[in-house]
Amino acid sequence: MTYMAKILLEHLNKRPQRAKNLLFMLGLDPRNDGPKLRALVHELRVNGYPVCAQTNNGGGYWLGSRQDVDKTIADLKSRIAKLNDAVRILEHCQVDGQMDVRVLRGENDED
């Protein structure tokens, strides 16, 4: 685990910490280093730490309970499904012309 991930872990607790505050505590730029923070969160998660996230109420990261982790897992799976939908449609996209999205989604043209 990287040094920065260990520092982030020290700042996480059972209450959501806003990304902006975590970036400041890590000495990173809140305007530009959001991707670095997300990469550190990912690093902690794949090392077995129950880092949870919320996007409402100002957002934040924290070390969660089983219920918090389950909610974060559901959110991640939902995001994966949405990204897979975009990938599937883009794979059939004709860059030099138009495409009929209804066909890709399985909708009927006879509506």
Question: Would you mind describing this structure in some detail?
Answer:
The protein is mainly alpha-helical and 111 residues long. The protein folds into two domains: 1-64, Orthogonal Bundle (Arc Repressor Mutant, subunit A); 66-111, no CATH class. Helices cover 53% and strands 7% of the residues. It has five helices and two strands, in the order αααββαα. The protein has helices at residues 3-11, 19-25, 34-46, 66-91, 101-104; strands spanning 51-54, 60-63. A two-stranded antiparallel sheet has the order 1-2. A hairpin with a 5-residue loop joins strand 1 (51-54) and strand 2. Helix 1 (3-11) packs across helix 3. The longest helix is centred in the last third of the chain and has 26 residues, at 66-91. The mean pLDDT is 87.
How would you summarize the topology of this molecule?
Blueprint: H1 3-11, H2 19-25, H3 34-46, E1 51-54, E2 60-63, H4 66-91, H5 101-104
Antiparallel strand pairs: 1-2
Helix pairs in contact: 1-3
Tell me briefly what this model is:
With about 110 residues, the protein is mainly alpha-helical.
- State the helicity in percent bands: 40-55%
Q: Outline the biggest β-sheet.
A: 2 strands, antiparallel
What is the CATH third-level topology name of the largest domain? Arc Repressor Mutant, subunit A
The assigned CATH architecture of the largest domain is: Orthogonal Bundle
Q: According to CATH, what is the class of the largest domain?
A: Mainly Alpha
Low-confidence stretches: none
Our measurement of the CA-to-CA distance between the termini, rounded to an integer number of angstroms, reads 55 Å
Structural class by helix and strand composition? mainly alpha
- Bulk shape: globular
Specify the number of helices: 5
